[in-house]
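Following the same procedure, sequence and fold were stored together, as reproduced here.

>
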Amino acid sequence: MMSESTRTYLPAAGHDWALPLYDPIVKLLGGEKARRVLLDQAALQPGYRVLDIGCGTGTLAILSKRLHPDVAIVGIDPDPKALARARRKASRAGVSIQFDQGFGDELPYPEASFDRVFSSFMFHHLPSAEKGKTLHAVRRVLKPGGTFHMLDFDGPEGGAHGVLSHLLHSRERLEENSENQVLSLMRQSSFADPKKVDGQAMLFRRIAYFWAGA
């Protein structure tokens, strides 16, 4: 586990005081269903090691472990308050998950140590300078033949910017989430055959699913 960093980050709900509202809001907007689609796309197998970067309150990590108990799940996030909530949720769900504090562009794991890496509603939070670094870090920790699965809000062409962008404090960063820009960054990070594999409507905004191989 990484020691507490002095780096700044954007909390999952935009502000610490809003953290208790994050899970209900994301569920209301259709986030739970969207994460199940992402999980299905990953086709997890027994014995896999899976990393969830920007795991937040642990929803995807916990869902992954409940549906695939023979898979080892690791979640990483810079927000200690979100991680505390994730650990409580995992305990209530009766699942064992390793939750680490750290940043996606400084992953504290050996090279080629995960079969799958997830990113769920996290990428748009990253400052421009950290997006490519995070993808490079993900590529480093993926095993040969492993895959990266990303779910996020669609870019400028993806729908209205008003209410949802305000709730997530991410309007400017959503502008950078265009399909061309995301795929370009993945190619620059040496991913194999990156592609947008799906897009769906969610309340207030469309979402996009991306796939890339190691």
